[in-house]
């Protein structure tokens, strides 16, 4: 966007090119049964680079047990620069919902957004895939099926430096106040 025009250069600093990334978590199959009692109720968590601010979850499947189905669609907005380089990793984790104890981790899939984009581009920006679940350094039992679409480029206004600074200062103040009272909280 180098034009030499000062007003266009100022505008490029305020805005960035992005794409909407639509992902539909379709189903999983042949999962390890991680419950001793009761039936499995599996949900999926989708994030980028395991960043909590980007995390979205499917509803828990109440009937599929080790073969859950969601057909749940989510939309994320990703900067074009992040799509075109190996820096952003799509992470999908599966969990078995537990009512009284922490949820039980089943496994996950990870794929660079750049690779997903390069696969979908020749097919009009959409694709469907099935991936084996991993767990730790090994392979977990089961597979995850999902489809995804990269939308057209859109222009999104960047958050102001002032808003970014105010958010960081508020987060610091809350954590400092809670730490001085002996309490702790997750970052805002």
Automatic annotation (TrEMBL):
Region entry Disordered, spans: 49-68
C2 domain residues: 2-127
Residue ranges with Basic and acidic residues bias: 50-64
BP term (GO), one: defense response
CDD domains: C2_SRC2_like (cd04051)
Name of the protein this chain belongs to: C2 domain-containing protein
């Amino acid at each position: 966007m180098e034009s030499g025009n000062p007003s266009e250069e100022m505008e490029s600093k305020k805005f960035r090119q992005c794409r909407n990334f639509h992902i539909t978590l379709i189903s999983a199959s042949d999962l390890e049964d991680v419950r001793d009692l009761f039936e499995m109720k599996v949900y999926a968590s989708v994030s980028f680079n395991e960043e909590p601010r980007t995390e979205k979850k499917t509803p828990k499947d109440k009937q599929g047990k080790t073969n859950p189905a969601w057909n749940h669609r989510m939309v994320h907005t990703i900067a074009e620069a992040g799509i075109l380089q190996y820096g952003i990793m799509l992470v999908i984790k599966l969990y078995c919902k537990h009512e009284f104890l922490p949820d039980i981790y089943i496994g996950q899939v990870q794929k660079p957004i750049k690779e997903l984009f390069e696969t979908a581009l020749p097919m009009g920006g959409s694709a469907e895939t099935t991936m084996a679940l991993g767990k730790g350094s090994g392979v977990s039992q089961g597979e995850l099926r999902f489809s995804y679409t990269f939308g057209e480029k859109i222009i999104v206004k960047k958050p102001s430096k002032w808003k970014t600074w105010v958010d960081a200062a508020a987060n610091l103040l809350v954590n400092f106040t809670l730490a001085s009272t002996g309490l702790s909280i997750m970052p805002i």
